[in-house]
Amino acid sequence: MLSQFTREGEHATLADLGVDFKKDIYPVGRLDTDSEGLLLLTNDNYLKTKLLEPRNKHTRTYYVQVEGAATDEACEILNAGVSIAIDGKKYITLPANAHLIDEPFLPEREPPIRFRKSIPTSWISLTLREGKNRQVRKMTAGVGFPTLRLVRWSIGKISLADKQDNFPKPGDVWEVTAEEAKQFYE
């Protein structure tokens, strides 16, 4: 699904969720059609600006399933910053917070990722303070471990872990509580 309300081609959009969103609701950040996870929608212009303005460097954590047995050394490189191409130009990413994790509890992906019997997969938790186009995919490929599955796990202090008792399925929508919303302003 495209993380927007406007239709482009045949892809589903946020308008297809069957939720009667107010007209002034806007997605904060984007997920490409091959990515999953947390997407914040808001009509709070101050919050939207705060989270979208690059100089504010709010954190976003992704759980990334990669091809191959990822190493601590690869995570150290991700932590230091990786050279990637942005619009055909060399760019060094800001230092990240990357570490190996066990496979997280997630709903099955539809369509499933490609599977190869002879090549293992592993998981990395990757926290960024910037958001370049396809950055996570470029970073993991840059250290030799191409991304197979990409799930945005958290934005700031709001996390899918907060919903472990009633874990959301793809397309689920919930309203953050007033207490959760306050966390974005801290």
TrEMBL record:
MF-aspect GO terms: 23S rRNA pseudouridine(2457) synthase activity
Alphabetic keyword roster: Isomerase
UniProt-listed Pfam families: PseudoU_synth_2 (PF00849)
Domain of life: Bacteria
E.C. number: 5.4.99.-
Pseudouridine synthase RsuA/RluA-like domain: residues covered: 21-141
Family listed: Belongs to the pseudouridine synthase RsuA family.
Record's protein name: Pseudouridine synthase
Organism of derivation: Dyadobacter arcticus
